Structures are given as structure tokens and as C-alpha cells.
Amino acid sequence: MSGAPLLSIEQLTLALPAGAERRDAVRDVSLTVAPGEVLCVVGASGSGKSLLAAAIAGLLPRGVRHAGGRIALRGRDLAQCSDAEWRAIRGRDVSMIFQEPLAALNPLMTVGAQVDEVLRVHRVLSGRGDGAARAARVTALLRDVGLPEPERLRHAYPDALSGGQRQRVLIAMALALEPALLIADEPTTALDVTTQARILALIEHAARTRRTGVLLITHDFGVVARVADRVVVLRDGEPVESGRAADVLRAPRHPYTRALLDAVPHGRVEPRTVIRSGVPLLDVHGLHKRYAPRRALPFLPARGRRGVDALIDVGFTLHAGETLGIVGESGSGKSTLARALVRLARVDAGRIVLRGEHDLARLADNALRPLRREIQMVFQDPYASLNTRQTIAQIVATGPLAHGAGRRDAYRRAAELLAQVGLPADALDRYPHAFSGGQRQRISLARALALDPSILVADEMVSGLDVSVQAQVLDLLASVQRRRAMAIVFVTHDLRVAAQICDRIAVMQAGRIVELGDTAQVFGAARHPYTRALLDAMPVLPARAAASGTADAATRAHQRINEEQS
Amino acid sequence: MTRGFLRRFVRARGAAAGMLFLAVVALVALSAPLWLPSPWRMAGEPLLRPLQAGHPLGTDMLGRDVLIALLWSARVSLFVGLAATVATFALGASIGALAGWCGGWIDRALMAVTTLFQTVPQFAVAVTIAAVLGASLESTIVAIAAVSWPAIARLVRGEFIGLAQREFVLAARLAGESPTVLVRRQILPHVWPPLAVLAALMVATAILTESALSFLGLGDPSQMSWGFMIGAARNVVRDAWWLSIWPGLAIVATALAINRVGEGLRHASALAEHGR
Amino acid sequence: MNTALRLTSTVLRGLAVVLGVLVVNFFLVRLAPGDPALMLAGDAGSGDAAYVERLRAQLGLSRPLVEQFALYLRDLAHVDFGFSYRNQLPVLQLVLERLPATLLLMAAAFAVSVVAGVTAGAIAAYGESRGGPWMRRIARAIGALAVIVYATPLFWLSLMSVIAFSVVLGWLPSFGMESVGAGYTGWRRALDVAAHLVLPATTLGLVYGAIYVQLTRAAMLEVIEREFVRTARAKGASEPRVMIRHVLRNALLPVVTLGGLQLGQLAGGALVTEIVFAWPGLGGLMYDALLQRDYPVLLGLIAVVAALVVLFNALTDLLYGIVDPRIDGRGAR
Questions:
Q1: Which of C13, C19, C154, C159 to mutate to test the interface with B (most CBs of B within 10 A)?
Q2: What is the DSSP string of A292-323?
Q3: Torsion of Cα atoms, A328 then A329 then A335 then A338, to 10°
């Protein structure tokens, strides 16, 4: 990897419009990308990394200005380019792929037509008789990115493809004209774990075989570990560390980098002892749920369309004080299971027996109401799970008030709970919009705890949070559980997170539980091939040098981040 | 929250001006019997041009003062606009809430009826109802309500269905809130804002429809209204074409003002969700 | 869902709507104050006692409601929409005589409203989001104009345009569909009709165009923010290509659906416009029936126009199926 750099950014500063949370989106950022090299730009959300990428492609949104520094591609200063020159560069010399594959494709154009568009826009094979040649080229491009039956897939519309397939199409579009530089803005974040690994491999392959320089934006160090040659860490728009990926991962110099790395769930299994005795708190057996297919007219049979089997013969037991992880990718049925447990969805068959007495699946609504306090839920989206028109006090006191507590008692309880989740008392009178994602999840937790449930279902509770905040919230959850001897059903798509807090793990695939066992056993000796595939897809960070006691370092890191973010 | 609401409200273009204009119109409308002479009084020579002594806007074909008639007409327009909207609301909101909350076959049946009333040529039906019931304020109000309720029903139903699936509502259900409390505390506060905006726009539409019905002679014959004035002016359009202009401008100004107030409401409530 | 199934479903639903309208008519007559027979005889017919009695028997007014409804359906099956005593003609015949003129006006106005509305809306959306200072001013002007037009009563605007272009300027004829007594044929007749069509179609088209302006603008502003537009730009596509092939194409979807719902309003507007311009269509029929209190005609009018709207909606559904490949399962796996 020698020779002149492909992309050279010197002291780049991008100014935000007046009234933004800081003056500059990025300030004095310098980096280089060599041909065939993969450079990762890492940062939390709001660190300016996406705007940096947009600037290189000349796609800055209105209001963000180039306020200093230089972006040079093969020595040519990009700031001097006219609109026409930019249009020639984009797609041909510099390509970009984005985060959400479905949203990034025009739903009304076939996949082949969209790949073809790159060729047409840049006048490749655009002569009168070149139609067939172009079609062949498109097919070849689709095949190169590993899409099955490219000849037929060419005529499909985006919504018929899976997330991974769509991202492959976008990569095909981006690589169609063999650009010198590929910018990938969080290309795998919206994808399943197993798919992520494959897409990253595809990108890496393109870099190595075609000598394409890759600038990859991410917040996930797992991605860095897997494909990066070099890495730059951004914080609030400023670079805090850069260097060879292996070096930075092994021995980060800047405290911020160290804190970020420490917060990444390590996926190492701690020894856990759980006493499972007596009548199980929850005994789930034989759950089935199918979603019926849509019909054209109510009375017509749905010809040839099967419904979707969301749950197939799902069963497990749960004892007091234990944490059971439900791990699966999208479409595995884990969310349906979570909702079934709290009776937000009804199952077609099966039992959900609480304390050996009540079958929650079968109870009438009236009989269920007093039992509701036993099993509560925390939802995934911190921005949708709080009523924006209620104060925090009202939100947290919802349960007690609904069960007949007096207002003063209910609000006093709310104050206690807020203290338990680490929020100040003055939060009671404020509204949700004043709080960050992590704080909102704490409030959601306080609300769920208000009724003193014996079971808490956490449905992707930390999936919508930044890595550093995730760790804090998980710690909180663990400490709350210890204090109350509460059982937790922890639904997640991230095995590493599950490893951190779960005693037992159930792996779900296509509606079934394919593996169920102690965490240590699932990680050490997985029986089902799907579990093994998930484990293989987990990124492994290199061991950290000079770590002075893992637990202490982690705690100190969390404290530091906590201070910096409040 | 109210101060921020007001601040956002006035930032919407024309909202404050619209509010002011409506206040003036409402004042005139309410106080008219106290200080304005009857609009039916033949105050001068017929078809006097505007800007004559004593008749700033001239007189109509029967010698009635145009300006006085114009001011009196505000009463009918505002009254019918508000009353029709209230009726529309009562009908539409109940149907929509019922459909959205109950779901199942009730929802399907009610939506079929709603679609039916949306597909009929609304103006023709309003005309027919007003004709069948006889020319009066009540028949106008009923006619307008009978064709305008579907829009409210759909909005309310849509909001109920959408909100019922929102996670904070689900959390309240889990917390054990009874359905009535749930609707009151979780759902209604989110339904009011879009509903208020639609209500404002509906008042404007009701005024336009009322004027059209009066134009066709279906309004209360004992009440002076802008539509009636335009209808009468149509007969003398070749001799005194200017008579048609003033009442039309009055309608446009009022409808526009209400429209701007509605936009102000939309602006104010949309941002309230996101703070600041 | 494949096309045939979807179309069948649309047609069935449309028929249900028309049936529903007829049911509404049925109840309207019986719920109104007064004697239904007198009402259906109309002002003119009420004087003829024998006729009223015949009507009473025909409607079965002394029989239970269910039987009355059965009789009503039977009449409908014989395509009997009622009788206008005043005109001494079946209502259906009266309506069908006037229908072509109204269709002509509606079609012309629809074309104007869609073309003017969508174009203006697209320009406004483009100006607001991507344009320079001049484009932004134009966009704001378009938006303001649409708002003002929306607040304008159609009948008054029609009257104003008559005053402006006919009375004051004398450029265009102000009433009727053809020049009275001129007896043109062929080419010249078409031109004459066209000249008479300009004012009413343009007025009606502009007022309903305001709806399309707002729809298109809102739809385009929403689509412009979407990811795939960024992808298209990242490919190096030119601005016009991005705007038309990507943004407009997707924005037209909601415009088609929502715009289709407005057709009932267009029909109502056509009726009003025809009255002001004395256009020989259903509007004039309605106005006459109103003055003469000829209720059967009014009721028949509602039924026919409803059927028209249902037909238009079916066509819109068909159009939507063609434009959006996700329906009809063309995105086959």
C-alpha cells in the first residue's frame, strides 16, 4: 500500500448553520486513503462522520458549508469543481453507499434499471445498439456481488429482495464503473448479524482485488476489527486518534477511544450461578402463532398465499432471579414472543403459565388485569415509548395510579424509582423531549418497575442506543435485578449483549427456538448450525494490552462517559 | 406550554393577522343588531356607484346599502360556519372514534358508510338535502354536516388506529390503565391537535358551501348573506358588475383568515411535540 | 393480487357504493317532512290529484317499509329512476340528455387542473427545497396563490371571470356551449364550442388545480428527503433526471390516490360552474329542478353523478396499479 494517497483531506472544517448544537460539524480533520486500503472513521452519533463522508462526494445538505481545509482526490482539489464536474466524478471516480438499503433504492424502478442508470448517466455503452451489451454488463455486475439468478433478479423491484440483497445491489451500483474511492456510510448497521459479515467481506474483497480505496463510516468497533486497515476516531467533529487499526484496537492512546472500546460488549461469558428450583415462575409451552395472508375480497380464499408462521412450538421455563436471553435476527419471531408474553398479542395455541397457576394465554381481559402487574415490558424505541404530552411523574406513576393508588403515594413512588434508575428528582416535572435516549430508557424502566413486577420483558431495550450508553443501561438493569430478585426475559439480536447479562440463552430462527441452554454452554458448545453461524458472525476485538483488571477499567470508563454526557 | 404555543402560532405566516381579522369580523357580527340599521332597508336610489355620499360601496338593485348588507352578512356566515362544523364534528368524531377503537366488523361497516358519503357528489347531495328540508339556516347546517363528516371520521379513526399501536399506549395498557382512562390520558391529547387544525379548515369550507347554497337560493330568505348578495348581483351583472365583487371578497378574506389560523394551529402543535 | 382480481374487487365495491347512494335516496325521501308522494310529484305534479294517488300506489306508501324498498329495487332494475312531472319525461332521459356536456366540461377542467396543478406544485416543491433565491420566491408565490384560490368560492370566481373576460374585455363568450342561432357545423362548430369552453373549464380547472398544487408540493417535498434520491445524486445523475425520474415518479403515487378522491368535488364544482355559465349540462338541470322543486330529478342526478364518480375512481385504481409495481405483485420473487 505505497504510493500517492488516493484521497487526501487536510484540515477540513465544515461549518453548521447558526443555531446548531455546535459551530462546526467537523473541525481540522485530516486523513488519507490509499488505493486498496480500508480506512474506518469511527464515532458516536452526532460526531460529524456522515457529514464528512457527504462532503467528499459533494453532497452536503443545504446550510452546511465548507469552512476551511482541502479535499483532494488524486491530487485534484474537489472544492474547485463545478456542478458538471461533480456529476462526472460521482459514480465514476467516487461512489457512495448508505445505511438503509430499502430506502436507498427507488421503489418504482427495477433493480436492473437502477444499476443500468449508472452506466447511462456516464454514457457507458449508451450507443443505439448497445442495449444488449449494457444489459449483459448489468447482469455481470449483479453476479459479481454474489446475487443469485442475476438474469432474473434484474427485473425485480426492490421490495422483493432481502436487506442483504438490496445492499449488494447498491454495492453493484457503486462499483459499476470501478471507482477509485468507495465511501460507505454505515453500510451494515441496518442488516442482520450474519448478513453484516458477508457484506463487509464483499466490500473488503472489492478493495483488495480492484485496488479501490474504501472510506467506511461506522460506530461499531466490530466492523473496524473485521475490515479496517487504518482507523480515525472522531469525537464531536474533532479527530482524537488515528493509526493502524490493529494498533488502535490493541492499545488505544486517547481516553475517549479507550472508553469507547471498553463500552463495546465483549461477548465474553462470565461465570454465572443461577439457582433454578421449585415451581418455575413462567412455564411456556407449545406457543403457535400464524399471521393470516391478506385477501383481495373478504370472502375469497387466499389462493396460493401462505400466512407467516411467527411462532412455531415455542417453549421454555423461567425461574425467579434469572435472566433469559432470546436471541434472533429480524423475522425470527422474538418480538412476537415478547409481545405474547405480556399479552399484547394473542397466540393461536399454547400455554403461558404463571407460577403454575394462571395460564396467561387463555385468560379473559378482566381476569388478566390484576395479574398484569406481575409482568411488565420495556420497549425498544426510546422516542416512541414515552407519551410526549405527559410529565415524567405522570408517566412513571401510570401503573400505580391505574391500580388505585392515591396521587401523593403514586408520585412519591415515582420519585423513589427515578432515584433507583439514576435520574435526579427534578426530572419529575419535565417532559420527555428534554431527555436523551439513554435517559428515556431509564424512565421506561422506572415505569415498568413501578408495579413491582416479578418478570420484566426487555424488548431490544438497548438496541436503539449508542454503544457507550448501552453499557450503562445494562449495568443499571443488572443492579436492579439483583436488588429485586426479578426475572428478566431479554430480547436482542446482539449475542455479545446477551453474553454480558444473560444466564441462559434461547436462539430463535424462523419462529422456532433452535437452541436453549446456559450461556456458557451455548457459547462454548453450540449444537445447532444456526447458533454456530451467529457465533461466527460475531466480531472479535483483539485482546487489549495492559488492561489493569477488566472490571475496574470498565467501571471507570463508564463513570467517565457518564460525567461527560450529563 | 401555552407561551411557547403562542410564539409558534404567530410564526406561521398570516396566522396572527388572520386571528385579528376574524376577531374584528366576529365583533361586527355579534354587535350588528346594536348599531347597524337593517340591511333590507331601502336606503337610497338603486344601483348607485360606490363612493357616493352616505353609501361607501353603493347600493344594490333595490336601493339597499351594500356596506350595511355586507356587514350584516357576517352573522350568517360565521354562525353557519361554526354550527355546521360543530355538527360535523359531533357526527364524524363519534363515528371515527367508534370505528378506530372497536375495529373488526364495526370498523369495516362504518368505513363502508364513510366511503359511501365520501364518494357521493357532495355538493349535489347538500343541495338536495337543503331543497328537501326547505330553505332555512337549519337545513343549510344539516346539509353541510351531512356531507362533510367523512373527513373528520377518517382522521379520528386514523389517529386512533395509529396511536393504539404506539409504544407508550401499549405501555399504559400493560400498566393496567382501563380503556376509558387510556383514551382520555394517552390518546385524546394526541388527537386534539390535528383535529383542531382540520376543524379550522372545515369552518372555512362550511362558509364557502353556505355561500354557494345561498347563491342558489337555498339559504334562509330572511337572512342577508354574502352568497345571496352575489346571487342577486348576478342578475344585473351587465349593468352593475361591481356589486358582485364586494361580497365575494368578503368571503375570500374570511375563508383565508380562517385558513391561516388553521395553519398557525398546525404549525404550533407540530413543533410542540418536539419541544422548543 | 393480480390485476383481474383487484379490478373485480374495485368494481364490486363501486357497485356497492352506487347501491348505497340509491338507499340513501330512498331514505331521504321518506325522512323529509311532508308527504313523500307530494314531494316526488314535485310542485307541478302536486296539483294533479290523480297523479299523486298513482304515485302513492306505485311507491307502496301504505305498505311496510321493507315492501317499499323491494318495490324501489324493482323500479331500479327496470332502470326507472323516477319521473319528472314538470318535464313529462323520465328522469333518466333528462339526465342522459345533459350528461355529455357535463362530461366535456369535467374532462377539460380535469385536464387543466392536473396539468396546471401538478406542474405548479412540482415547481413550488423544487423551488423550496433546492432552488436559488428566485426559485424560492416563485415557490412561495405559487403556494400563496394556491391558498388564496382555495379560499375563493367557485361560483364567485366564475362570475368574476365572466365579468372580466366577457363583460369588460369582451374576449370570450360568457354563456352557453355554442353561439345561439349560428348553426355552425364540423370544424367551425368545434371551434365555437371550444371558445365557449375556455372560461368555464379554466375557472373550474384552476380552483381544483389548487388542490393538486398542494398535494403535489407536499408529496414531492416528502419524497425529496428520501434516501434513494441521494443515491441517484451519488450516481452522478443530473438534477432534472433526479427530479423527474426519481422524485416526481414517486410523488405522483399519493397524488393519484388522493387526487382521485377529489373527483366527487370536481363533479360538484362542475354543477356550480354550469349554472353560472349557463352551460347546458347537469348543473342547469339541477338549478331548474331546484327552482321548480322537482325532487325526482334531483335524486336521479345524485345517483347518476355518483355512478360517474365511481367509474372515475375505478379508472384511478387501474391507473394506480399500473404506476406502482408493488401492487399486483409485479415485484415477484
A1: C159
A2: PPP-SSTTS--TT---EEEEEEEEEEE-TT-E
A3: 10
Please give the average pLDDT of every successive group of 10 residues along chain A, which has 566 residues. 76 86 87 92 85 89 86 87 89 89 89 92 83 90 90 89 90 92 89 86 91 91 91 91 92 89 79 78 92 65 68 92 91 90 91 90 85 91 90 92 89 92 89 88 94 93 83 89 90 89 93 92 90 86 61 49 52
Q: How far apart are CA A24 and CA A63, in angstroms?
A: 12
Complex ipTM? 0.87
For B11-32, the pLDDT digits (tens) are: 777 888 899 999 999 998 898 8
Q: Is B174 close to A344, i.e. CB distance below 8 A?
A: yes
Is residue A138 within 8 A of residue A116, CB to CB? The reply is yes
Yes or no, beta carbons of B167 and A381 under 8 Å apart: yes
Grid cell at residue A294: 391478506
pLDDT value of residue A563: 53
Closest-CA distance of chain C to residue B265, Å: 16
C260, closest residue in chain B (CA to CA): B119
Q: How far is CA A196 from CA A147, A186, A222, A532, in A?
A: 15, 11, 10, 15
Neighbours of chain C (3+ CB pairs under 8 A): A, B
Q: Which three cell numbers stand for residue A48?
A: 460529524
Distance from CA of B167 to the nearest CA of C (A): 25
By C-alpha distance, which of A378, C82, A43, C252 is closest to B174?
Answer: A378
The predicted pLDDT at position B56 comes to: 80
CA distance C218 to B69: 40
**Which phi and psi (to 5°) does residue B253 adopt?**
-60, -45
Which of C24, C156, C268 is closest, CB to CB, to B248?
Answer: C156
Q: Are A257 and A224 in contact (CB under 8 A)?
A: no
- Put simply, the answer to whether B208 touches C21 (Cβ < 8 Å) is no
> Cβ contacts of residue C184 below 8 Å, gap of 6+?
C178, C191, C192
* Cβ of residue B109 closer than 8 Å to a chain A Cβ: no
CB contact under 8 A, A107 and C228: yes
3-state secondary structure chain B: CHHHHHHHHHHCCCHHHHHHHHHHHHHHHHHHHHHCCCCCCECCCCCCCCCECCECCCECCCCEEHHHHHHHHHHHHHHHHHHHHHHHHHHHHHHHHHHHHHCHHHHHHHHHHHHHHHHCCHHHHHHHHHHHHCCCHHHHHHHHHHHHHHHHHHHHHHHHHHHHCCHHHHHHHHCCCCHHHHHHHHHHHHHHHHHHHHHHHHHHHHHHHHHHHHHCCCCCCCCCCHHHHHHHHHCCCCCCHHHHHHHHHHHHHHHHHHHHHHHHHHHHHHHHCCCC
Bridge partner list, A73: A7, A76
DSSP secondary structure letter of residue A90: B
pLDDT digits (tens, 9 = 90+) for B110-136: 998 898 888 788 888 899 888 888 888
Q: Tell me the pLDDT tens digit for each residue of B232-244.
A: 888 888 788 888 8
pLDDT given at position A547: 47
State how far the Cα of C310 lies from the Cα of C300, in Å rounded to an integer: 15
Helix (H, G, I), strand (E, B) or coil at A218: strand
Task: Give me the DSSP letters along C170-185.
Answer: --S--SSSS-TT----
Size of interface B-C (CB pairs under 8 A): 141
* Chain B residues closer than 8 Å to A379 by CB: 167, 170-171
Please answer whether residues B250 and B230 qualify as being in contact, where contact means their C-beta atoms are separated by less than 8 angstroms: no
Q: Which amino acid, one-letter code, is at C260?
A: G
Are residues C282 and C70 in contact, defined by beta-carbon separation less than 8 angstroms? no
CA distance C295 to C289: 7
Helix spans in A149-295 (H): 150-153, 163-175, 193-210, 221-227, 245-250, 255-263
